Amino acid sequence: MCGVSRSPRLAPSILSCDFSRLGDELRAIQQGGADLVHVDVMDGLFVPNISFGLPILAAARRATDQYLDVHLMIEQPERYIDAFVQAGADGLTVHVEATRHLHRVVQQIRAHGRDAGVTLNPGTPLETLRPVLADVQRVLIMSVNPGFGGQAFIPSALDRIRAVRAWLDDVNPDAHLEVDGGVGPANIRALMDAGANEFVAGSSVFGADGPAEGLRRLREATQ
Ligand SMILES: O=C(CO)[C@@H](O)[C@H](O)COP(=O)(O)O
């Protein structure tokens, strides 16, 4: 039996929001029942896109009291952990491919009292995560190649979730297992059944019908 509640936690990705109305968007997702706010930081080096960085995170921190789940798609994240903590991150997730010192970065995040997360690209062997599984609060399985919102879900993520869920149940049942990329009403139930309990969603939340409806559809699909 897993230690964390298996109740699904919805994590809208603000990468897909209207940044000219960031405060309104954050209020809308909170009112719509978001459980945490996913913040995608991209450096144009680790991924072929630049999103935003510290000032936007700090602005989000001023605008909401919700948990800020920061996904660092940046090279050598150890250079910026302290700054992202200062800017208001509650959880920081780093890529195994982006650092030579994965265990040290996890320690660095934990030393600030924040939740440490680890993630990996869809083409990276899961084994690279294993040495730190007991030390983290969150594992993120990427179900797209990171860098852009609105991409198609990669089905092999389902088996990867099942495998990591089994490992976590052995060594760290309290850790969250999050999935990110192409998540929507059509696949959220299958992802839940595979063992994920946190669901990052950009397009399916900030779509044409707005965050309240997007979140309602996702929540309904988990039933
Ligand atoms: O990290 C990323 C992309 O790199 C994701 O968080 C996306 O922003 C999710 O967007 P959708 O696939 O839900 O549109």
From TrEMBL:
Cofactor note: Binds 1 divalent metal cation per subunit.
Alphabetical keyword list: Carbohydrate metabolism, Cobalt, Isomerase, Manganese, Metal-binding, Zinc
One GO cellular component, as annotated: cytoplasm
Cofactor: Zn(2+); Mn(2+); Co(2+); Fe(2+)
PANTHER family: RIBULOSE-5-PHOSPHATE-3-EPIMERASE
Entry superkingdom: Bacteria
Gene label: rpe
EC number of the protein: 5.1.3.1
Functional summary from the UniProt entry: Catalyzes the reversible epimerization of D-ribulose 5-phosphate to D-xylulose 5-phosphate.
Pathway it works in: Carbohydrate degradation
Name of the protein this chain belongs to: Ribulose-phosphate 3-epimerase
Binding locations of substrate: 13, 71, 147-150, 180-182, 202-203
InterPro entries per the UniProt record, alphabetical: Aldolase_TIM, Ribul_P_3_epim, Ribul_P_3_epim-like, RibuloseP-bd_barrel
Similarity annotation: Belongs to the ribulose-phosphate 3-epimerase family.
Residues at which a divalent metal cation binds: 38, 40, 71, 180
UniProt xrefs under PROSITE patterns: RIBUL_P_3_EPIMER_1, RIBUL_P_3_EPIMER_2
Top-level EC class as recorded in UniProt: isomerase
SUPFAM superfamilies: Ribulose-phoshate binding barrel
Gene Ontology annotations of biological process type: pentose catabolic process; pentose-phosphate shunt
A molecular function GO annotation: metal ion binding
Reactions it catalyzes: D-ribulose 5-phosphate = D-xylulose 5-phosphate
Active site residues per record: 40, 180
